[in-house]
TrEMBL record:
It comes from the Bacteria. InterPro entries: CHP02241, Phage_T4_Gp19. This is Putative phage tail tube protein gp19. One of its GO terms (molecular function) is structural molecule activity. It comes from Lysobacter dokdonensis DS-58. PANTHER family: CONSERVED HYPOTHETICAL PHAGE TAIL PROTEIN.
């Protein structure tokens, strides 16, 4: 029998931290593209005309996009180094915190991530917005640790 008052709430999506190996932890406003998909291979068996067999194929992952207000040029320097031919992949941990921020409730780890696209801020003299940088990273797969 379950305890009275015990419940498990879904994790909130607004409190998270991103850490790339040796870079300082990043406070990002958005993290999108955490997705994985298994390709389906169809096999038509001779003499079987009612259906085709569907079999799992390769797994593929999309790129992950991070957005944050510009506070320093660490991400730009990493992207620029790769664009200039100095390739360095880093593992990336994405920690999702509970509402208090004291405990991690989810952790995703991107393996061998590296930036493939950087977008600078949209600037406008008549606006009152933050300068936001966007970085898209490719990776060799990800795992969920919690």
């Amino acid at each position: 029998m379950s305890e009275t008052g015990a419940r498990l709430d879904p994790a909130t999506a607004f409190r998270f931290t991103v850490q790339f190996d040796d870079l300082p932890p990043g406070g990002f406003s958005d993290c999108t593209g955490l997705q994985s998909e298994v390709e389906v291979q169809e096999y038509a068996e001779g003499g079987l005309n009612t259906h085709t067999w569907k079999l799992p194929g390769r797994s593929k992952q999309g790129n992950v996009t991070f957005k944050r207000g510009i506070v320093n040029k660490v991400l730009w320097d990493w992207y620029r180094a790769i664009a200039d031919g100095d390739f360095k992949a880093r593992n990336c941990s994405i920690y999702v915190h509970d509402p208090s921020g004291a405990n991690d409730v989810l952790e995703f780890q991107l393996v061998d991530a590296f930036p493939v696209k950087w977008l600078g801020p949209e600037l406008g003299a008549g606006q009152n917005n933050l300068a936001i940088e966007t970085m898209e990273v490719a990776h060799q797969g990800f795992t969920r640790r919690r």
